[in-house]
């Protein structure tokens, strides 16, 4: 059943208040919902009341205190219809039962390692009780939770705690929670279990005392300190950066070990995948710390962008997700290095969103239809959605952007809004017409912008021409509004004297299909630097040669474009080699020399940035650059060759850098950005040295593992060894598994590293690991570590010409689908880029996809991804 944006209709009924009484039991949980309903004056008159349900068993139904006659309603597992509901406000009392232990979908109310928890977005609340499970029905909730006191001493709900006590003579106890702010059902949550608590208080700018608490598995409280601190920093930041204060007396975060996604922003009770809460130097890498900080912030920021202002319907998902990703990216940029963070954002965008946008699963940031909404929590909705918000800020400037955000929150607080409501807040404060800009939400595909320059030495002018095109867009498609942050760079540095009347505060706005800028007062032929800071999510086509790009690496005042210049040169070298074009030795030499010069002056000034410069574009990006008929083996070899070349050419400097950057013995670990940056550069150097010299790489990696005082260095050593076949690798893997036998989240890293080994034996190794006692097909983190890493980050083995990699993924998908369709569908997305493969592999992928679609009893989730993958 396809749901279409154009079919949106207001609900015929509204729910003002919800009282829930949830009596938790492992297999027989009873839920009594008392709903204060009324006809929606804006809906259809005398409409039946149609409540959503999923896997529910109805036990009792009363309307205004009277049992409802059997012929007055129809109820089954998937819904409850009251044929002729009262034409005035009325109260429905619905008693249902459910089995949380049998809930393997991890949607609705389920148990994770014995802890009762919930996930209701997008449509899980209907698995708890019959309801108008749509985001534009907002109600005030009071929840009474009752459970066995021994197995569930902690009982948490949305809002503020009201009351708690024992149920005498039963061994059970209860807690009542009240959430004063109206919310849609997808923000409902409850938790019951045995959990440790760490807490601190925070006073908001409005003077409200808030108790912040993080709940984790017993004994792991010390690993929650970083997350707790991140909540506090997020609260403070949202006050300063956006004027948004928290609005309840408590803010709770709970970590659970079985969770389909990263985390969930339930009102006052965020529930997290424990991978994004738990951290200690011994178990978490710098990347883990950064991800925890970002996701804690993301979920907290949803309190305003998502909860106070929610979405009218699921087509508006980017309204909360794109905006909230933008906000968490800004937060991380302020907490860390803005330039380095921007590079990480763009790497991620290109690796996931550009690939999605170029393949059969491409969709607009605001989709027009869906068969399964849970398949639209995508890089396009999230990451491209965030880029749209960032472009808006670039277009109107920071002060107007902040004013527009204030206006958006003020105008839409307590309501379910649309993308139009968002844009109109900015139109109101700027007086601008943003209707052309809105086109960014409407069409899939990554735009291309061709940039070319002409220098006129006599007139001392430089003309920079832009031409935008969109893949698959018809001739009628209006051009996009594209902010181009731009400048010129000369052989000796930025050309500040050169100006153009159409560049305002460094930004040129490309609004037509073609346009050009003229810079005056240009003394020498310059190198153009367009799309500074990646000012728009486009592919830039520019005829610049490597020498010109290396000038940007040296002199561009914009760090992003310095990095971009190095990436483009590397991509050019690798793509030529992968396509079998004559290998360009001189080009590689010039690149090595440029990197050497760069490291000489800057490696120690900004190690994190230097590490980014030394990290070549990945195989996926190279495949994306080549575009069609790709051969993953040729791509892998080309990348290996360049890594080897850099490692050999920079060997001495990299070795010295590693020594200079070594942590002094006994230094305490700190996850801050500067320390992490030093580790990143040391480990980028290790990677290149090992690429050039396996023997030296092995010795260095072994020594690093031996001496490691933190997971970042230990894992980097192991990752280096993983690429070097031999006994040292196997011994290190065995030792690592022994050391962390009781640490599931660390074993995930061990699974992932092995899944990514780019060698023939990997499929066999993975099949063996699937029988490892620590592996479980029922745990999303385990599955993503082993199967997800393989299919997304091991291109040569996943795309094996014999199809064995595709088969492995297909088997896992089908094995998981019956229990957890969302997880299975997520895995399926790895097939997305299948059409760009060379014909042999393409045929192998297609036949596996066809086999999957033909499987009986396939979930809607997997069917949707598989059929779209084949159709696109
Ligand atoms: N709103 C959550 C977040 O981005 C994601 C929840 C998605 N869950 C799902 N089952 N689709 O923070
Ligand atoms: Zn989100």
UniProtKB/TrEMBL annotation:
Top-rank taxon, per record: Bacteria
Aminopeptidase N-like N-terminal domain mapped to chain residues: 32-187
E.C. designation(s): 3.4.11.2
Catalytic activity: Release of an N-terminal amino acid, Xaa-|-Yaa- from a peptide, amide or arylamide. Xaa is preferably Ala, but may be most amino acids including Pro (slow action). When a terminal hydrophobic residue is followed by a prolyl residue, the two may be released as an intact Xaa-Pro dipeptide
Key words, A-Z: Aminopeptidase, Hydrolase, Metal-binding, Metalloprotease, Protease, Zinc
Enzyme kind, highest EC tier: hydrolase
Residues annotated as domain Peptidase M1 membrane alanine aminopeptidase: 226-439
Gene Ontology molecular functions: alanyl aminopeptidase activity
InterPro entries documented for this protein: Aminopeptidase_N-like_N, Aminopeptidase_N-like_N_sf, PepN_Ig-like_sf, Peptidase_M1, Peptidase_M1_dom, Peptidase_M1_pepN, Peptidase_M1_pepN_C, Peptidase_M1_pepN_C_sf
Domain Peptidase M1 alanyl aminopeptidase C-terminal: 548-871
Required co-factors: Zn(2+)
Stated family: Belongs to the peptidase M1 family.
The protein's name in its UniProt record: Aminopeptidase N
